């Protein structure tokens, strides 16, 4: 593969911490990823990072907006 993916999506597991995934997101950006989503299923939240230091949090009832990718995604169906 010569180009990085546009987006990386991480789903937190019981053995991971949010800090670990935030650090991992930073590494994705170092390698050219434009967006990184961190999904917290138990809370019904998704953090959308557009850079290592810039993110928005979306809840299960929200419509996720990823400006870096130019997409919108209603989350109600994702968290059903």
Give a quick rundown of the structure.
With 80 residues, this protein is an alpha+beta fold. It is built from one helix and six strands.
Task: Outline the structure in words.
The chain is of the alpha+beta class. The protein has a single domain, classed as tt1808, chain A (Alpha-Beta Complex). The chain has one helix at 18-30; strands at 7-11, 35-40, 45-51, 54-59, 63-66, 71-74. It has a four-stranded mixed beta sheet, covered by helices on one side. It starts with 6 loop residues before the first strand and ends in a 6-residue tail after the last strand. The mean pLDDT is 94.
Features:
80 residues; alpha+beta; tt1808, chain A; 1 helix; globular
Global morphology: globular
Question: What is the total domain count?
Answer: 1
The helical percent reads 10-25%
Low-confidence stretches: none
- Taking all Cα atoms into account, the compactness measure Rg is 12 Å
CATH architecture: Alpha-Beta Complex
* Amino- and carboxy-terminal Cα gap: 34 Å
Structural class: alpha+beta
Mean pLDDT: 94
